[in-house]
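Why do we care about 3D structure at all? Because function follows from shape, and shape follows, mostly, from sequence. That is the central idea of this module. The next example makes it concrete: a single protein chain, its amino acid sequence, and then its structure expressed as tokens.
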Amino acid sequence: MPFTQVALYPIGSRHCCITTPRPGHSSFVTPLSAPWLLSAGSGCGQGQFGQVIHSLQMTTKNKRSDRYGIIAVAFLLCSCTSETGDTSTTDDFSYISLSDGRISTVHGIDYEIAASDGFVAIEPVDREDNFDGTPYKISLAAIIGKESALMIHAETVADLSGASDYSNLPEAAWPDGNFRSRGHLCMEVPPEAVEGEHDLEWLQNNGFDPVGPVLLEQFFATTADMNKEVVLSILIKMPACDDEAANENAISKFQAEISVKKS
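And the structure:
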């Protein structure tokens, strides 16, 4: 498939290179609400969907500045998060526990997370990865419903370099004042974006298909030394992305179904 255009999206301290095809060909990505779109041009080339542009930075203050970005083109889409591709698992640590349907983060930013009936808590997985030369230890869990999911990341910066800095983002009202968020966005996620992307494949394998119009909002909490973090990612399947009132209502309704309390 020929590609001629490139859109750059901030994913942490990198930018995601999203190719779109020439007119008349199917599009890989069609962002319907992308407030962080920086520029368009040419240069990714065929087969480089998800190429990372390391030389660009969203801010100098926030080194990682939510590498989840729009989790790969917003939520780890197109393999934009991992610099090395290393997603090795390990049993040396576990920052999330699951008991009686409740998920708890247990690494210093301690929260208990539960949902109303109709949601299923997914067993956490642990892995190590590297982002912009910084090593991370990552635990991942989720609460999944019929058309929505809450993904929970609990992480530490393995080299204690303080790279988990989200201080440039506005404070959020939900789930409490310890979290920050840039707000929600809605975008069309193509099937090609899921293949090979750890978090999206993991969601798909556990019952939430991220393909199609998906509404996303993420909430970030970190310790004072910026070496530990919790990220809560709301993902909601939508019929379309062009109704902002419906998007806002969907986020509010989902939040009412979820309990997030300090433990």
